[in-house]
Task: structure prediction
Amino acid sequence: EIVLTQSPATLSVSPGETATLSCRASQTVSNYLAWYQQKPGQAPRLLIYGASARATGIPARFSGSGSGTEFTLTIGSLQSADFAVYYCHQYDSWPLTFGGGAKVEI
Amino acid sequence: EVQLVESGGGSVQPGGSLRLSCVVSGITFSNYAMSWVRQAPGKGLEGLSLISYNGDNTYYADSVKGRFTISRDNTKNTLYLQMNSLRAEDTALYYCVKMDGSDGYRDAFDIWGRGTMVTVSS
Result:
C-alpha cells in the first residue's frame, strides 16, 4: 500500500498570502496524484488531477506540481473560502490511498 | 447538473448488515466507473471499493474485502454497497463517488455525493 504523507498538518496563513502544501508518496505514483478540498460538513471537491491539471471550475490560484514521490499544492492569494482541509490522493495503484489531510487556517 | 444521492445509512448492531444505494443523475451513468469512499467521524478519507462502468471489474480495500460487495444497475442509474458483518470501526460517512473514467482505478474522483451515515454500535 502506498502511504501518502502530507505536511504541514496545519498551516496558518493570512488572507492574500500564499499557502504551500506538500504530499510525499512512499513509492512512485508517476503523476496519478489528485488534490481535494473539504470544508466542514461538506463532501470533498476535486481541485487538481494528474498532479497539475485543474478540475473544471477551479480558479487559477490553485496550482499543483510534482511527479514521482513529491507533490505540491499551491494556493495563491488566499481567500476566506479557501480555508479548509486539503487531501492528496494517489490513484496509481490499488488500494487507492489518501494523505492524512492538511488544514489551512486563518 | 450531476447529482449523486446516497441513501440506506443508519444505525446497526455489530454483525449486522446494511445496503447503501446511490442514485446518479445528470450523466450517462453507464459510461463511468463508480466508487465508495468513507470518512470516520473527525478522520480522513478511505477508499473502499470501485466498480467499472459495466460491472465486470471490482476492487476492494483489505478492510472490507469479503464483507462488502459493490454492484450497479445501469438501467436504474444506481450504485450499491452491500455491507455485511459490520463492525464498530465501519462507523463512518459513506460517500458515493463518480470516477473520471470508465474502467480501472487510474482516474480521479471527480464528483462526490453528500454521503450517508452508518453507525455500528450495540
Q: What stands out?
A: Chain B has a mean pLDDT of 96. The two ends of chain B are 40 Å apart (CA to CA). Chain B touches chain A at residues 44-47, 50, 59, 61-62, 95, 100, 105-115 (CB under 8 Å). The CA atoms of residues 36 and 67 of chain B lie 14 Å apart.
